[in-house]
Known about the structure:
Two copies of one chain form a homodimer.
Chain A: H1 3-16, E1 21-22, H2 25-32, E2 45-47, H3 52-65, E3 69-72, E4 91-94, E5 101-105, E6 110-114, H4 119-128, E7 131-132, H5 145-150, H6 158-161, E8 168-175, E9 180-183, H7 196-200, E10 208-216, E11 218-219, E12 223-231, H8 234-248, E13 252-259, H9 260-269, E14 283-291, H10 295-311, E15 317-320, H11 324-344, E16 351-353, H12 359-373, E17 378-384, E18 389-395, H13 402-405, H14 409-422, H15 441-444, H16 447-460
Parallel strand pairs in A: 2-4, 3-4
Antiparallel strand pairs in A: 1-2, 5-6, 6-10, 7-11, 8-9, 8-10, 12-14, 12-15, 13-14, 13-17, 16-18, 17-18
Amino acid sequence: MTETEDRFLERCRAIVGPAHVLVDPADTAPYLTDWRGRFTGRARAVVSPASTDQVAALVRLCAEWRVPVVPQGGRTGLVLGSVPDASGTALLLSLRRLNRVRAVDGFNRTMTVDAGCILSAVQDAAAEHGMLFPLSLAAEGSCTIGGNLATNAGGTGVLRYGNTRELCLGLEVVTASGEVWDGLRGLRKDNTGYDLRDLYIGAEGTLGIITGAVLKLFPQPKAAITALVALCSTDHALQLLKLVESHCGPTLTGYELMSDVCLRLVASHFPSLPRPFPGRYPQYALLELSSHESEAHGVALLEGAIERALESGLVQDAVVATSIAQSRALWAIREHIPLAQAAAGKNIKHDISLPLSRIAAFVAATDAALETHYPGVQVVCFGHLGDGNLHYNIAPPEGIAHEDFLREQAAINRIVHDNVAACGGSISAEHGVGALKRDELPRYKSAVELDLMRALKAALDPHGIMNPGKIL
Amino acid sequence: MTETEDRFLERCRAIVGPAHVLVDPADTAPYLTDWRGRFTGRARAVVSPASTDQVAALVRLCAEWRVPVVPQGGRTGLVLGSVPDASGTALLLSLRRLNRVRAVDGFNRTMTVDAGCILSAVQDAAAEHGMLFPLSLAAEGSCTIGGNLATNAGGTGVLRYGNTRELCLGLEVVTASGEVWDGLRGLRKDNTGYDLRDLYIGAEGTLGIITGAVLKLFPQPKAAITALVALCSTDHALQLLKLVESHCGPTLTGYELMSDVCLRLVASHFPSLPRPFPGRYPQYALLELSSHESEAHGVALLEGAIERALESGLVQDAVVATSIAQSRALWAIREHIPLAQAAAGKNIKHDISLPLSRIAAFVAATDAALETHYPGVQVVCFGHLGDGNLHYNIAPPEGIAHEDFLREQAAINRIVHDNVAACGGSISAEHGVGALKRDELPRYKSAVELDLMRALKAALDPHGIMNPGKIL
């Protein structure tokens, strides 16, 4: 270690205490590999501040020394956004020790939290106060709310409650110069200047570090009703969505799509999970209704909608869960799709969104194009259909090794992303850009948009030290 | 007119045609005075482009000549945001000729519109397609959707549907250098970089000019039910809000507060409007429920909530409208408050928001402070209580002329705004900053926040030509 390097680390230790500056590779390793195990970066050190002031002091130090800063929450991101590059120049700043629920204002239905709070802890704290924090996603037991904000996470409740962006009223941010912006407002309306909050949300730590947030809470519904329906096609799944939306209005809180390929994959890797239907169908939709009136109201409403859909031939078969256990079993099928995929071997993932009016055409065209180029290829398509968000994942044809198939990633991305662009969609619906999709952006964004983004980056992070190599 | 000036106007005429470049004071006058008649500015000329490309060409010209550009929609703003200053250097750019509904995607529930569309025309176009565009405010027959976006307008539907920000999925913007950013996406999820959309929304034309937008539409509810209830206090109004939210969930779409002072003012200036109750009460709340099931469902739900509130003593008396005419009559009382105020004479207006948990304390403290300094002063307080947004307007004590009282504006603003700040509120909830509240910002925003805003302004409008003197 050079003397200069030693002086830098000394300053870090002075800020957070020696126990919270890790340099030994055995200690830093757990922070340096991404969630899916696709990449391992290097860092000068891993530091764990315990307060906003410590974060600010560390960023000031990094600004002075021009040391890149990589903020990290639960390290559950899917686009290499929270791990450093291979250069070893960055300081990795783990926010996990900032994990206090600072305040709950029940009457205002808001909660002020540290960025390092685990999402499930935030959900639990809301529930303890008889309220709902509706952000919900697979990694909720590990991911942090700061990471959710930095990536504008989506999940299963977006249809009714919006993305993380819509669930946040105020932020506290450490800027690239190490100042603290206190924007922790608990207001539903505030038109006093530029929307800094939404600029930091979704910026993946490249403009500043989110250290705290004021979150919106909601009245807890009295009952949640789950149903699984069998369908002939994606198009029918979309038509059913419209029917249920019109019939049930905002009580519809979840609408997930799963193809037969997904269900078979789950059944083969998790045979103990129940099979919902005796027959097989091309597509399935998982619906969740939340009633503020009563369970009976919710059941009647959902059954009424499904009955209509059965009569008109839109739905082939349906089960409405009659107990919490049954509801959990239906959700378990959906939740086990990514796990079944992981068990089956590595595959090529796409997190895309489309206008609802273009989804059926996109799926038909892209399925066909892939089949032409890769006969026998398996499309594992599922996702948050209510938001137009599909996880359109591609597994190899039978007989081709998963590792070999990964070599086709760039070519397959091109087919999928070009079709997404042609249909007016997005190549990252809820996962962000990170380092993984950075080089895709110039292909699908206009020069005007990229220039605007670069101008913002230069304005708010003039030395380029905030999570470099991500997004731009 | 100088020769240089003449050449500039010649270039304008070449872009939009001579008929759309106004310089005669008789022609330009209607564009130069603000809605409330408080200020008349001057402009080099008033130009009316008919397309995004014409807007871009005009902005490029202004960038080249360093001529300030003031964009204007329906000129209904309340904070002097859309009229030029007194210097006469600015080009006023009226967006009113950009008034096409470009496309309606019924299946995606989105509508793409020109910025100059009148809000009520947007509402009507949605209704023609069997859908709802829920933005609704007093000026809806005159204001433009571009102005609504530029000021992030609020109104009466925010409780359920959010501010204009939440109703917009995509934007088209002419940047300060006269380029066109095509961000007209109709996606519920898109995490591919910085949130340019929300940066331009609410920026009041100081970073660029919004020329088009993709708006979110909603399923049309089957029935809207209106009720007016009489209450003992603001605190009871807040407790009732919580009770109704828990009982009715997202079917509650409107919750307005009006004091007895407001009702008496309306009754004295509009005696033909019906009086809802035989007795008088300190406060009233106007509730609107929207049911996607049926009118009977909505009525039963609202009556159930009100019955509980009557039993617990929270509500003193109540009327639930049993016809559309009766519902309109109840809304008419609320809508006539600003008209009655205008008829009574000029007053000192505040558009503030607060955490719901602080409203009762704010009102008590501020009412008392004003009474101490201005005995007999009249507080005309009403607004969107469900969003924590009050129009806290101050009229002179009896016997003092309205014009004389206006001299106290600065002192009264100080009392009100200091109390707002002490309660964690905002001095502009839904009207924006404009030129009117610009000098208030440095008092209530941190240096860090103002510096961030200035950095963004410098990055996106380096020559400072976009609506100068507004916000910053």
